[in-house]
Amino acid sequence: MIIESNQPILNSLKLCSIAKESVVVKNTDELHEIYKHIKNNNLRYLVLGEGTNIIPPEFFDGIIIKSNFNSISFKSPKIINVGSAVNWDDLVQFTLQNSIKGFENLSLIPGSVGASPIQNIGAYGADVSSLIDSVECFDLKKNKLIHLTNTECDFSYRSSALKNSSLFIQSINFRVDESRVLNSEYKSIKAYMSSNDIDVNQLTSDSLSKIVTDIRKSVLPNHNKIFNAGSFFKNPVINKDIINFHVHKESELVIWDIDNNLVKVGAARLIELIKDEIPPSENVFLYHKHALVLVTNGKANQSEVLLYAKSIQDKVQTTFNIKLDIEPNIIY
Length: 332
Ligand SMILES: Cc1cc2nc3c(=O)[nH]c(=O)nc-3n(C[C@H](O)[C@H](O)[C@H](O)COP(=O)(O)OP(=O)(O)OC[C@H]3O[C@@H](n4cnc5c(N)ncnc54)[C@H](O)[C@@H]3O)c2cc1C
What we know:
single chain, alpha+beta, Uridine Diphospho-n-acetylenolpyruvylglucosamine Reductase, domain 2, Uridine Diphospho-n-acetylenolpyruvylglucosamine Reductase, domain 3, Uridine Diphospho-n-acetylenolpyruvylglucosamine Reductase, domain 1, four-stranded mixed beta sheet, binds flavin-adenine dinucleotide
């Protein structure tokens, strides 16, 4: 295990960012060593995956810890154990090859398996929380291994108990469940199937994964070419009564009912409606095909991104009386 100094922090927004120290760990013994190093030097730490959901600072005065736990194995016919360093879409491909249902709608989400429970990744009507049995972690504050059940992870929309915790995720146990049915209910999946004459009865795991992949490629930028962190804001979940419909009519917004009190509001549409009133930034922009995606030209830093985001949040607040929360993790 080698601790390196002043290395760039990998991030898909391509922000200029350096860490005081960084290290890659591949087993629990090395995590015990890192625990001592952190304690003896009173260091801050950040566990990092592929950097597709972070907004890092210009200088991180601490140690970046990356996982090299990279195996996939069957613990039993009903459980697959997957190392945190495995790429998420590689796992999806593994499940397709092994006829394991349930991962199709989450095809092509960037990033690592280890990060997937942190914000409970989700897309096209599915969330990773429904696939996870339990999570194997190492507590960097307590210097011990911890096994968390699905319930203990306390999953919710783009959040979990693992977010901002002291836990390094070593591996995740996913449930294999033959009774799962393919989920083609999402609006854009249905629209794709109807315009391509695909019969729901002929849908397979492979074809559903391909549909999701095609839709994603048509609306989302490839982060290796157009620098971004996916959806920049969460869709707000609020009481409908508080929304200001004086500037824009209710029919102009995208609103999904959640229960008798709460609705989820499409953040992308809110931004589309106010985007012409946002002061331009030199190095940060809205992606032309999707207003929820902020992109950079590779020359921006954290403050510039946050300033641009704040001008969007302020405009949405004054226009609709809705507070937008940032989805990627802001690292200080
Ligand atoms: C183009 C694009 C599209 C996207 N689409 C979606 C989408 O459809 N749905 C969705 O939910 N997300 C989406 N995202 C966000 C991103 O893909 C996910 O959040 C993903 O899980 C991040 O993985 P990562 O390895 O890059 O995590 P990182 O960005 O490296 O880290 C994210 C967070 O996880 C923590 N973390 C990472 N690994 C570990 C570990 N082993 N142990 C403990 N903590 C850890 C980090 O500390 C950080 O807080 C998208 C991003 C991009 C760029």
